[in-house]
Amino acid sequence: MSESATPATPVTFPSAFLWGSATSAYQIEGAVREGGRTPSIWDTFSHTPGKTLGGEHGDIAVDHYHRFRDDVALMADLGLTAYRFSVSWPRVQPTGRGPAVQVGLDFYRRLVDELLAHGIKPAVTLYHWDLPQELEDAGGWPERDTAFRFAEYAQIVGEALGDRVEQWITLNEPWCSAFLGYGSGVHAPGRTDPEASLRAAHHLNLAHGLGTTALRSVMPARNSIAISLNSAVVRPVSQSPADLAAAQRIDDLANGVFHGPILHGAYSQSLLAATAQVTDWSYVLDGDLGAIHQPLDALGLNYYTPALVSAADEQRTGARADGHGASEHSPWPGADDVEFHQTPGERTEMGWTIDPTGLRDLIMRYTREAPGLPLYITENGAAYDDKPDAEGRVHDPERIAYLHGHLAAVRGAIAEGADVRGYYLWSLMDNFEWAYGYGKRFGAVYVDYATQARTPKSSALWYREAARTGTLPEVPGH
């Protein structure tokens, strides 16, 4: 029996539960100039001096484009029953306009065929932050036209893969795309315009809605369409009215700005009021909310750590401790009077506090807010400073403890009635960690970046046993 279980909480996961891992195209593929692929905003951003750690970039990454068959065989050896990957928009539709490039689509066709041949269920994410640079040059996500370009792209990929891929995700973490990309500037394209970040959020919502409609027009009805949100678990420092109001402000900006229109067909009045000094929301046109509010087949939740906030003290000093990278510009438009605090407890290499209760709270929130909607944990994991020992083995007991705690939280939520159908470990293997370059290792598989050799860490072997048995093995040393 797991340490988090009680006699009333079964420790076995449902038999159909998916045990997966997740990656994204720019972080693993490499081959950025092959097959007609054109630059994305992350190619441009990572090659701009000072934007990433050591000027590192994804030109080669972990060379998955050339090594995908070996990587799929490794997934099969690790007992994965599902794999979530993203499609590179500029690989299949260079410049973000016009016809598809078949050689780009063929890569994903081969990947899907390889997964299916190994009994692994593919889950396609259409957008994991790699906007074609030409669309950014035309204004990017703050421009309305980008949402329509996304719908065209979604239809292209849906037509190519919809006969074999049943699980689809439109966007990954649109909060990061909007507010880190256009607000704080720590992600591509690196812009720092609060009003543009809110415009981007709306047009990402519109892209999701239009993309969902486009996918349904070309795919079998059996296919499942979802979106992956990095919904924040926002906790106030105290129950004072000021701190509760601060938590509501951040909840609106982190969560409500997306699930409001997507799940409920409206932006909340509290969000509109809190951001009124930043934008008048005039870019929300008649019909937009109806286009966004499409029925979902599932909802993806990405979780790493909770947020702790308060009303700002007039004497506050120091950096904003929201865990989203250092910048003089805030990713929280209209919330300059909110202070973020480092939550207490053990932390990962990212400086993020380890708190599985946040994942359980998040699952139960959406179980209440969207009753009947199946949930998937589409990302959860931890970065540690992993190194091979003298024999070349990579032991990561901290990651095992992290996974055990968070999977126990998932199982507890299921016992409370949540319909959670799968878990995708972030990430399958070490890779390019955005602005942190190759300095943070999230993988269950260690990658020697000089040789591209893959070595499963002890956490990967632990996860294999969990997938095989549907239970959580003991944590070494516990």
TrEMBL record:
GO molecular function terms attached to this record: beta-glucosidase activity
Keywords assigned: Carbohydrate metabolism, Cellulose degradation, Glycosidase, Hydrolase, Polysaccharide degradation
Database matches in InterPro entries: GH (IPR017853), GH_1_N_CS (IPR033132), Glyco_hydro_1 (IPR001360), Glyco_hydro_1_AS (IPR018120), Glyco_hydro_1_beta-glucosidase (IPR017736)
Substrates-to-products reaction catalysed: Hydrolysis of terminal, non-reducing beta-D-glucosyl residues with release of beta-D-glucose
Its EC number(s): 3.2.1.21
Active-site residue list: 379
Stretch list, region Disordered: 314-335
Positions with biased composition (Basic and acidic residues): 314-327
Keyword Hydrolase recorded: yes
SUPFAM superfamilies to which the protein is assigned, alphabetical: (Trans)glycosidases
Signal peptide residues on this chain, from the entry's feature table: none
Family (UniProt): Belongs to the glycosyl hydrolase 1 family.
Name of the protein in its database record: Beta-glucosidase
Species: Streptomyces hintoniae
